[in-house]
Amino acid sequence: MRAQERREQALVELQARRFDLCVIGGGATGSGCALDAQTRGLNTVLLEGNDFASATSSASTKLVHGGVRYLQKAIAELDMGQYHVVRRALKERACMIANAPYLARPIEIAIPCHRWIDLIYYMTGLKIYDLLAGKHKLFPCQVLSARRLIEALPAVDTKQLIGGMAFADGQFDDARYNLALIETFVEAGGTALNYAKVVSFEKSFEKKLVAAICQDQLTGRRFQIEARCFINATGPHADELRTAASSNAPSRLEVSRGTHIVLPQRFFPSDTALLVPKTQDDRIIFIIPWSNHVLVGTTDDESALQDDLLPKASEIDYLLHYFNRYVTTSATRADVLSAFVGLRPLVKKKAKTSSKDIIRDHEIEIDEQSGLISVLGGKWTTYRAMAEHAVNAVQASLHLPRSSCLTYNLKLAGAEEPTSDYWQTLMARFRVSELTSKHLVDKFGARAEKVLELGNLDTSLLQPLLDDYPFLHAEVVYAIRHEMALSIDDVLARRIGVEFVDLRAASRAAATVAKRLGCELDWPEGEEYRAVETYREKIETRLRCVDSALQVAGQ
Ligand code: FAD
Hints:
Bound molecules: flavin-adenine dinucleotide
């Protein structure tokens, strides 16, 4: 059945059923909740108002981490809250890597030091970080001599460098991890729908939620989904649904924006990341090898939900300034290939606090009157633990006995143990290059062969989508047929990922992708053209933000 027909049929079926649980929001939190609930036997539907992972969950620093910065605060301020967040996250870090090793893996992170006192300080802190990780430690931290540090980070400025510390955390592909959660959920029998925004609720006489009123964002049609329980996992938008459920619900969230920039690999040719431990405004910044590019981020500024998510000139300059302070070859705005912004959903503290000081812990809130269960705050690394707590609350609210959570050891779709030479098998079987084969295994794990099989009927699908990049036409078709991609953005941002690393390259691929979408989804005449124009305008706007200031940063 074609993708469009599948969606239509799903919409009809959805309305004829009553689910045990309706999860609203298809980011990390909602997808984790849906998977947990479905695997515990609750009939679950997941509704996402835009595309899966289209908000904060694809705009992260892509680190699976305990959070060295929170540990710093735990020690400096004797804050047990921060300490518990770090401990939990270190346990979840190991679990996230184990459950989808093709999408998440350990990465070495180095902190260059220019004073002995700093080296001793970071060494003490990182030893504690390792101790807290206990059996979940990835590899032990170590002191690096100046020579070893330069070997690990050849681009680093050696002026007054005495050495540094190296420690382990995890790195992952956030958007594809989110998609793998959804795929696993659907394979477990769950129903997931993107572009289905919940606009209000239907309530019983006692004001309990009985149905979510949704609007199909593609057709404008409204429909209703009935369920016994509802989880609000809408990240930064959680207050909106809380108010829709109970009009007098006080606001619980504040948001802060975080911007990243992406530079060409030549500015930082390394497998090790660099942590800038202290900026003038008391933040940390990461310089991370990412998808054959360099990711630099993040900023942390208070924001409002209504703000547009375009990178600001000042944010780009800020990141370039710190990047240039640590490397030998300075980068300018003209070198920035991409920039993206995300909103952190932070649970408000009682007293007014700066957003960078708010603990990245989560809270499960149960609205006694409406029954809405809201999952507030948290971070990507702890999505699974958050989901476990939320589904425990669902079982309690449905008066069901608490059943064991199954997700701690649940391999995600694509993580079905391919052999270590799987990429070689694919090379031989499909006659593709080593680069292509490794690229597909890194993105799809054991499902890489499903992408390549598309080339059996049409060998042109095994051609690259863009010069200089390993992405194949087959990935576009696979995204539409098997990963619910419905727009150019869905394909080029969350499925293929090129939009995150190179805006101009994404713009070049837009017309080809639109053609495939038009063909696979039976788009009406003129739609392809309109979609390409809209997409290119969006990319141009982001590029203009990057290019807008005349001043060259860091000079
Ligand atoms: P979101 O990803 O925002 O998902 C919420 C979803 O709900 C959205 O897709 C939205 O479209 C949907 N939605 C909203 N309203 C409705 C509605 N009415 N109906 C249907 N759907 C709706 N964490 C880490 O562990 N590691 C990191 O390196 C890291 N880096 C970060 C860097 C930045 C700059 C930021 C901002 C965050 C970072 N985080 C990191 C935190 C992490 O990314 C977030 O905690 C996490 O992604 C939040 O996921 P979520 O599902 O709660 O929210």
